[in-house]
Amino acid sequence: MSASVLFDNPGPKTRARHRIYTVIGALGVLGLLGYSIYRLYDKDQFSYSRWEPFFTPDYIRALLVNGVWQTVQMAVFAVILAVVFGVVFGLGKLSDHAWVRWPSWAVVEFFRAVPVLLLMILIFFTFGISRGTSGAFWSVVIALMLYNGAVLAEVFRAGIQAVPKGQGEAAYALGMRKTQVNTIVLLPQAVKIMLPSIISQCVVALKDTSLGYAIAAPGLTAVGKQIYQGGFQNHVPTIMVLAALYIVLNLILTSLATLVQKKFVGEKKALSMPMVGEAKTGAPA
Hints:
Layout: H1 12-42, H2 48-51, H3 57-93, H4 98-113, H5 116-128, H6 132-162, H7 165-173, H8 178-208, H9 220-232, H10 235-281
């Protein structure tokens, strides 16, 4: 075995010390968890009266239909629109025309800098307040589209620039214009590079739907507010249930996105194999 050039491999004493640190850290975490559970029990947070709504069919239906379903709808609309926004302004930042490049840069930098909650409030009180629940719904969607789209614009720009230059040069040699090179040649190859960042941004968009609470938008946080204001005095149990639902939704979203990524990467490899074989077969002896 060759030693690492960055650090020496730990010896027996160091490995033993690391094991001790690991055990102490694990015991500390377990102790903190146990203390938290004890405090919750001491404050009567585990009594059935506080958890009763989450065993009642009407409340469960409200959580799933008015909560989870509305949250998923907002996230799906926001992600789809954000991807479109990101592609348009990401390509705009790569434009050779200054009248396209600089406005695209200004839009992306502005919406990346403005907090999502402020965007939601601004859009709601400007356009959505007169439309009630639907206005709040679309205020959340538009705000998430603008922020996440601005982030994805940078992701798309960086992904396109990460593709080997020879790909673009070959396309230009065939007589393609820059728009055709970006959309037909570079962007499809860049998607594989960008997928992890796109997945992360989808998770961010899903979690940020909870900020719609500030403008009375539908979703899990709105249903949770109705539950703990219904006389049950169960703020902590409601927060725990909502957090668990968000975790489950994010795990499902991440799993689906990972499957898509594996399928896409697998197809790209499968498509590239025959081309390599043909090149070898057709090569002159």
